[in-house]
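[Meeting: bench + compute handoff]

Bench side (C.D.) handed over the final construct sequence. Compute side (W.E.) agreed to return the predicted structure before the next meeting so the bench team could plan truncations. Sequence as handed over:
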Amino acid sequence: MSERPNFGVFNDFWNGHPNHLPFMNLYDIPNPPKEWNLTKSIDRLDYIISKNSSNDVVDGIRLLLKNEDWRPHLVAALATLKIDKIRQSELKTDLWNRLKTGSWASPQILVILSIIDSEFNVQAKEICENGFKIAYSEMPMHEHHSARGPAGISVDNKKVVASTEYLLNGVIIDSMENDNGGSLAKKWKENLLELIENNKFKIVNN
């Protein structure tokens, strides 16, 4: 992200380092950089959420999701899991709308929705039965490539379906045509739940 968009209370999440990158897979690479790694990224997220009002945090998550770039979407998805359930319910529509307007982080967003949305299975069944259609806004090609990934809308649509198929039915149907969405959703959810179980990613239990 060359320009600095307004992300509200999350503006300081990026401090000159790619602090979103550890959220892609939710595990640390061997010998991670001291300046940025999974632990530091989670700590930054915790600090922002603990030091700001729930209203400001929710507003910030919405700003992250409104951006066309997938990087803030990862931060928004995980931040949503760290707030209370009442506030989470206010963001379900924002997360679904982000999927409808496209995100390279669709498997991660869907994992979060599968956890926080009590009606996820209804939406998921609809996607599995009838497919998914992203409505991308107009963007110059070079910006699209950076913000949305290089695969193209057909693959991006099928990636949502493949991720949903795993989260709903536990079925993985990987291919280049769906960017291995099922495996991406499976591994990311497993890593997330392991972090939660080991108290390395703390969530509000209410």
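W.E. noted at the follow-up: Residues 8-197 form one domain. C.D. will use this when planning the next construct.
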